[in-house]
Structure formats: structure tokens, C-alpha cells
Amino acid sequence: MILIGIDPHKSSYTAVAVDASGQQLAKRRFTVNAGTFRQLMAWCEQWPERRFAVEGAGGLGRSLAQQLAAADEDVVDVPATLSARARMLATGGNRKTDAADARHVAQVALFRPDLRQVTAEDQTTILRLLTERRDDLVHERTRVPQPPPRRPARPAARRRGHRPDRRQGRHRDEGRPPRHRHRQLPPGHSP
To answer: 20 FRET partner, CA 20 to 30 A, in 36, 103, 112, 146?
Structure first.
């Protein structure tokens, strides 16, 4: 059986596949968008005998874990404390990367049979998850500073100088003789 460990973040998921001895077979990073789940499942088709281990399936990884469980996949929840402990005990340095975290998540799931099995939640819970995700997106969007609103353009009448005479309540030009500019007339014409 192949174990696929997933390190979830808000903007990406990193997946690492390991064999029964814990050796890494493949890794891939997925950007979170509308097609992420479909891309993940297409990548995982190469291992028909598989099990998923999602770090924080009750927290940041909840949405993905629920999608996997709803698709009848075998999914376990790996608490962040266990994957952090596995990272600390790993040889080869303490450099923290998403791929290394996903590998440690898979390795913990290999050797810990007592991990919580993720089951698909009912529709009410799924709707609540979607609402929470929408609220997160709205909060993120409103957190980013917005440009100041543009001042509306002045009406055409004001641009041309036809403002109302505020003292008398009428247009300035109303009731006055028209102003003529001096123009050059062609030779032979007189005013």
C-alpha cells in the first residue's frame, strides 16, 4: 500500500507518496483553486492501493480531508504535533520544507495505527465549511488595502462655465445680452 502524506496550507497542498518502508516515491505541489482536488486525484491514480494522511484534518486540512472522505478514500488525521516530532527525529538536518513535512506526515501514518480515521461529514457540516471558507476569503479581501475612491467627474455644464448664479437662483448668462468675441471677417464683408 502507498501512503500519500499531505501538508496543507491556505494557498497550496504538498503531497508526497511513500512506500511501505517510508521511502519517498514522488512529490507534487498543488495550488489551491477550483480544480485542485481533481488534479490531486489524477496524480494519485498511479497508486490504486493508497491511503491518505492529512496533517490537521480537523483544522487547515479539513476541507481536503472531507473531499477525500466523501470520495470514499481511506484518510487519517495526523496531528501537527506528531509530524513536528517526526521532523525533529529525522536524520539529514532540520531544514523545514513543505515536501519534508508531507513526507513526515506519511511516515507518521505508516507507523501509528491509532490515528483518527476521517469520515465524511453530513451536508450541514459541509455547508458550514463552505461558509467558513467564504468568510475567510472575504476577510482576506477586505484586509488588503483598497485604493481610495475616485472623485466623480464634474458635470459637463460646470466644465463649460454654465454654473448657476447662486445669489439669484438663475444661470449667470440668463437675461444678459450675449457676449460676442471679435472675429476677423473676410475681406469685403462688414458687420
So the answer is: 36
